[in-house]
Structure formats: structure tokens, C-alpha cells
Amino acid sequence: MSSPSDRPALHKVKPSIGIRLAGTGMAVPDVVVTNHDLAKKVDTSDEWITQRTGIHQRRIAPEGVTVRDLATAATAAAIKDAGIAPTDLDMLVLATTQPEMVCPSTAARVVAEVGASPAGALDVNAVCSGFVYALNVSTSLILSGAVRTVAVVGADVMSRMMDWKERSTCILFGDGAGAAILQASDNPDQGSLHLSMGSDGSQWRHLYCPRTPDQLPPDDSIFSGAYDTLQMNGREIYRFAVSTLQGEIDRALTACNLKPQDLSVIISHQSNMRILESAREKLGLPKEKVYINIDRYGNTSAASVAICLNELKQAGRVRPGDLVLFVALGGGLTWASNLWRV
Asked: Among residues 49, 163, 195, 298, which one has the fewest Cβ atoms lying within 10 Å of its Cβ?
């Protein structure tokens, strides 16, 4: 399996303009499903789930609530928090594993529903890396001068991709959406200092969602037998996550000549609490510097980093001048990071 350290950083940002984090928002379903609730439906227990993942509960979207619904609500909340009009948006980049249709893009529907037309719209699919991919794309668009105000959104309803008889996957995921409004700034020291994206498609078979028999890998030993549901080789994904997360953090810090202690907080994809705690301990950081909310929401895929960002900002824990490292990894296999001065 290739490693992000095998090649140089994709983009060392040297902007003549800056980027301001103007606002954030989030939306999660009202329905809370605890580990005890799951234990009534599948062979598992609260203790088994908590010890392996750190998850205590997750939000599950009821029938009729879609990715677009959650993305629209999160975007509207971020627009309100930013104190701008919807028509101030030049672009909306939506990260999701589950676009509602092949055409039109879900992003275009969200633009219309929040009243932001004729803003540009783009769907991005990098699975759990999605929001950081979307953040990086939006960063590049603003720094190029093509746009000034962008909504970056991550939204997934992972419960619709679960085989609810397969305890190794159904216990992990939850539903939700998060959004951030980015605006061009006159302060060149504000915004992205370093960003990176990578992928290793040769390892796709470790995390995939097949629709038909011809989409199964030659070795389909992890296939549960249920099509249109997520299939995961937990052992291989865990190994990938541990090494890649640490590699991305090290690369970003090295590129900017920073030490872990210089960071105000690491906002990581919420894949597994043990992975996050291991990374924190290796970096020698106190608990408050690696944000964790997987215990309350589970793995919300493309939404997880965005939800973390919103909670931190609304709690006053992300402030102007702070150094924040966004990092994520997911299916594809994909990974991405963005080191940001707020």
C-alpha cells in the first residue's frame, strides 16, 4: 500500500490574498440510536462497540430525510452565521458519498434551495475525506481569484448504505451534515498555509459498495452478500488509517516548519477513537488539541470534519489567529489535509 510520504506535498500555498472562515453550520437528525438500541437488533453490546470504536450513539435519518435535506439545513445555518445573503455565494462545493441522482448534482439543488442561484455548484466524492477535499478545492478557487465566497459542505446519510445484519459496519456510522463559508480576505496570513490530497485506487477492495456481481473484487471474502451496502475490511482500513493519519500530520507540520505544540487543534475525520487517541499520544498533545465527537455522532463520513469545525467554532474554541489542521482519510482509498490559520 502506498503512503502519502512517498511523494511531495501537492500544494504549498503562498497566497497574495487570504481566506476568512466567515461562518459554520451543521444539521443532524433528531433520532438518536444508542449502542443499547443496536444490541437489540444485531449481535453486539455497548461494551463491545465502545471498546473498539469509542462510539456511544449516532444520529439516524428517518425515512424521507435525504442528504440534500441535511446539506441544505447546514448550509443555511452557515450562511446565517456568516451574516451574508445567500446570493453572496459564488460557489458551493458539496462533499458526499451519496448524490441523490447522477444528474443534476446535489450541490446544484442545494444552491437553489438556500436561494443562492446562480452560484456555481460542484459535487465531490472522496468518501470520508470528502470535506477536506472540498475545502482544498474551494481554497484553490478563492486563491486563483475565480471566486470570493464559497460554501463548503459535507453531508452523508450513511445509514442507507448499511447492512444492518453486519455488526462490523453498521455500528460505526451515523448521518449528518456540516458547512463552512469561506471568503477572500485582504490579510494574506489568513487561510490555508499548506494543503495536500492523495489516493491509492489499487486498494479500493478494502472499502467499497457494490451494486452488481461484476463489481466484486476477485477476492470477495469480505462481501456480506448484500449489494448496495458498504463492505469493509476492518483490519486493513485500520492499518491504513493509523499510518496515513500520522503521515499527513507530519507532512503538514514539516512543510510549514511547525511543531505539534504550535497547533491550536487538530480537526480529524472521526473514524475511530483509538486511532485519534494514538495519534494524539504520538504527537505529545493534550486531549483538548485533538477534537473528538465520534462518541456522540459515530462516523458521519464526509460530514465529520465539518461537524467538528462547527462545534468548535460555536464553542469559541476556533478563533482568529489559531492554527488548525484539518485531516481526513477514507474510501478510494483517499486522504487529504489542510493546515489553516484562522
From this structure: 163
